[in-house]
TrEMBL record:
Record PANTHER family: FAD BINDING DOMAIN PROTEIN (AFU_ORTHOLOGUE AFUA_6G12070)-RELATED, GULONOLACTONE OXIDASE
Pfam families documented for this protein: BBE (PF08031), FAD_binding_4 (PF01565)
InterPro entries assigned: BBE, FAD-bd_PCMH, FAD-bd_PCMH-like_sf, FAD-bd_PCMH_sub2, FAD-linked_Oxidoreductases_BP, Oxid_FAD_bind_N
Residue ranges of domain FAD-binding PCMH-type in the record: 141-324
UniProt keyword annotations, A-Z: Oxidoreductase, Signal
Protein name: Isoamyl alcohol oxidase
SUPFAM superfamilies in the cross-refs: FAD-binding/transporter-associated domain-like
Annotated organism of origin: Apiospora hydei
Family label: Belongs to the oxygen-dependent FAD-linked oxidoreductase family.
PROSITE patterns: FAD_PCMH
Secretion signal span: 1-37
Length: 626
């Protein structure tokens, strides 16, 4: 349960989940322990555990207690633990607190091998506990790592890196960074966990001061959640930018991939607002990286290219703050669930036509098939003493939902936290536990500027087969950076485009148009191949829709994207630049994950990526690639 204590003052968000930054160690050794009880292997783990002063743990899939066997061996059912897992299977905070808890269970599954997973059925009755597996069902490890390290300091990371270096080639040991487990693309499977510090006047390492003089900032350890960071900032009369989900790690994958949020149109991406990072690079050195010191190349690469720990394990990041309390206008419009498809499409078209104006006026948030949730911090709209500008700006959309039996709330709240607690948190507590996949595409602003562009977007949506995709489920973050016309008053204070590695299309786009589906928990291999082939064709159609002016969000992309280097980082040259930085800080290629910087086509075959590689090759064969 999320508790929004003291909501009247709007000062707190408190989740009960605790977690630390984890370094998962995946290893063929685990199998050899089970099968051969190889004493050598045990000695290896024991000595690592000693170095880590006992913070090495073994891990098993979340739902293992509900199965009478694990990895081919009979094991006892644990009824109490199983009941807790079943009851809380879709609860974000429950998963967040478990070492093997991922928001999206594709990280637990082996996508290419349906027999190798340990997943429960959440579909038969969504309000009841997840289904009990049949008595003869098998629990497979899937993508869940054998061991993990609870990272408390840089020295834990260094010890794990030493271990991986020593045992990678001989024993197939590799490391994976797992933080909150929000990754959609299986890049997290297989200490300074906590802590936040406020700075009145932060000067990044190596900075002479002029550019960031007097800048308010907060340093957030990698394991801290977005919700706790929002509360900490508010307690210091400040605002830190974050995404929607309270459990996302603010200094983890969110900034490493880009980081959009409802205030991005005015204040930029999470990656735009980071001033400094402390990171242990794979070459075994703890470094402080900023745009102004000798690790400017690393700092750039981390922000946009850093998912999967490609450039190292981030221990903490320092984020720029805005002064609070900051009045926020909110628009929360909803259509009834049973709205006919034609009306849903009309609603989507209305939003497509209005979205650029909303963005220019400072609004950002979600555009969707059955709702709209937008926030706006600009004073002309977020006027506490007069909501008429906010109401007028949203009038046409409000009138539409009201005319079709929906509800409309447009109001101005005194600060971001109460607005987010009221309009986002209640819908974000039980969204986990289903294998949801997203293919997003950044849509250029100029496509929204005229009716021709709007109709192209609508034609794309209408071309999606209704048996696979329902327009009611449309979900679009309208949260690209610096869309708002602020006359230079807000945003872009640093030379951000030049110093981060996110796809350049972020700065000329308006929507991250998402097509999503949920893979049934028990889909057969043929069903998986069929669905992901369709999905990858959709990704291609999205690319055609925008041409080269678009791009894809590395955090919310189709993991089977074929031209992923260009799609996620803009061009082969941009990718090569990242690769150069990768070779400098990770000369041995110690950190590797699925389609992270440094991933090679040769990695498609082989044990390490067997759960993704087999399907990828089969999809490529079906679609054909140039
Ligand atoms: C319900 C939900 C809502 C979301 N909403 C938004 C949103 O509003 N805006 C948005 O931009 N994105 C959103 N996302 C996507 C999210 O930002 C990404 O999945 C992000 O990568 C999550 O990072 P994490 O560290 O919390 O999760 P994890 O799955 O633990 O990590 C994600 C990736 O980052 C790497 N990583 C994490 N921590 C570190 C570290 N300290 N050092 C090095 N590598 C690390 C992991 O190895 C992994 O590859 C959402 C995702 C979900 C599931
Ligand atoms: C590591 O040591 C701790 C403390 O002795 C112990 O609780 C834990 O089980 C050990 N981990 C492994 C993987 O053996
Ligand atoms: C799991 O669900 C049960 C019953 O609803 C609840 O009492 C318990 O607190 C939950 N556990 C966690 C860790 O969320
Ligand atoms: C679903 O589960 C809930 C809670 O256990 C129960 O009240 C409800 O009757 C169930 N619905 C169906 C259709 O079985
Ligand atoms: C498991 O048991 C069910 C009936 O409970 C049966 O239909 C199914 O074939 C069995 N599966 C296996 C793999 O034995
Ligand atoms: C807010 O509204 C009041 C009352 O209409 C008006 O006087 C004031 O100028 C407005 N503030 C801004 C920033 O537009
Ligand atoms: C920016 O300037 C234009 C033209 O002067 C003005 O109409 C607009 O309201 C200004 N916007 C903001 C956010 O100040
Ligand atoms: C998967 O499970 C659902 C129940 O959730 C069932 O209706 C369906 O037949 C199963 N599919 C396969 C392929 O076993």
């Amino acid at each position: 349960m999320l508790q929004n204590a003291d909501q009247s003052m709007g000062r707190r968000y408190s989740g009960v989940g605790t977690r630390s930054l984890l370094l998962a160690i995946c290893s063929a050794l685990a199998a050899s322990i089970a099968v051969e009880a190889a004493t050598d292997s045990n000695t290896i783990w024991t000595s690592l555990n000693t170095t880590l002063t006992g913070r090495l743990r073994q891990s098993e899939p979340l739902a293992r207690p509900c199965f009478p066997n694990f990895a081919g061996q009979p094991v006892p059912l644990d009824e109490a633990a199983c009941a807790a897992v079943r009851t809380n299977y879709t609860t974000n905070l429950f998963r967040d607190a478990q070492p093997a808890g991922y928001m999206n269970p594709q990280s637990e599954m082996c996508l290419s091998d349906p027999a190798d997973q340990c997943i429960l059925d959440t579909t038969t009755n969504t309000t009841a506990p997840a289904g009990m597996p049949s008595p003869n069902a098998t629990c497979g490890r899937g993508g869940v790592p054998s061991h993990y390290v609870e990272v408390q300091s840089a020295s834990d990371v260094l010890a794990a890196l030493d271990f991986a270096r020593a045992h990678r080639d001989s024993d197939g040991v590799y490391l994976v960074v797992k933080n909150s487990g929000h990754d959609y693309m299986t890049r997290n499977n297989g200490g300074p966990g906590e802590g936040m510090e406020f700075h009145d006047c932060f000067v990044p390492d190596g900075c002479s001061g002029a550019e960031t003089a007097g800048m308010r900032a907060m340093t957030v350890a990698a394991g801290e959640s977005t919700g706790d960071a929002f509360a900490f900032a508010a307690a210091h009369d400040s605002l830190v930018l974050g995404g929607y989900s309270p459990t996302i790690a603010l200094s983890g994958g969110w900034i490493l991939g880009g980081g959009h949020g409802p205030l991005a149109p005015v204040y930029g991406l999470g990656a735009d607002r980071v001033l400094q990072m402390r990171v242990v690079t794979p070459d075994g050195v703890e470094r402080v990286a900023t745009a102004y010191n000798e690790h400017a190349d690393l700092f750039r690469a981390l922000r946009g290219g850093g998912v999967g720990g490609a450039f190292g394990v981030v221990l903490e990041a320092t984020h720029r703050l805005e002064a609070g309390p900051l009045p926020i206008a909110v628009a929360s419009l909803k259509l009834p669930n049973d709205t006919p498809t034609d009306t849903v499409l009309e609603w989507i078209e209305l939003q497509t036509q209005s979205s650029l104006r909303w963005g220019r006026e400072g609004w950002g948030g979600h555009v969707a098939g059955l709702y709209l949730t937008h926030f706006n911090p600009l004073p002309a709209i977020a006027n506490l003493s007069d909501t008429s500008a906010a109401t007028a700006s949203m009038r046409e959309a409000s009138d539409f939902v009201l005319a079709h039996g929906g509800t409309s709330a447009v109001e101005v709240l005194p600060d971001f936290l109460p607005a987010w607690n009221k309009y986002v948190v209640p819908g974000a507590t039980k969204t986990a536990g289903n294998a949801r996949f997203i293919s997003s595409r950044l849509i250029p602003q100029d496509m929204f500027a005229d009716e021709d562009g709007v109709q192209k977007i609508m034609s794309f949506l209408k071309s999606l087969p209704t048996d696979r995709w329902n327009p009611r489920n449309l979900y679009v973050p309208a949260a690209t950076p610096f869309v708002a016309h602020t006359n230079g008053t807000y945003g872009r204070p640093l030379s951000t485009v030049e110093t981060s590695a996110v796809h350049p299309a972020w700065y000329t786009s308006l929507w991250a148009l998402s097509t999503a589906f949920t893979l049934p928990w028990n889909a057969t291999y043929e069903e998986r191949l069929d669905t992901f082939t369709w999905f990858t064709e959709v990704t291609q159609q999205q690319e055609i829709l925008t041409g080269e002016k678009g791009g894809s969000y590395v955090n919310e992309a189709n993991l089977f994207t074929q031209d992923w280097r260009e799609a996620w980082w803009g061009s082969r040259e941009n990718y090569e630049r990242l690769l150069e930085t990768k070779r400098k800080y990770d000369p041995q290629g110690l950190m590797n994950c699925w389609k992270c910087v440094g991933f090679e086509d040769a990695d498609l075959v082989g044990e390490r990526f067997r759960c993704q590689g087999k399907l990828q090759m089969a999809i490529d064969e079906r679609i054909g690639r140039d």
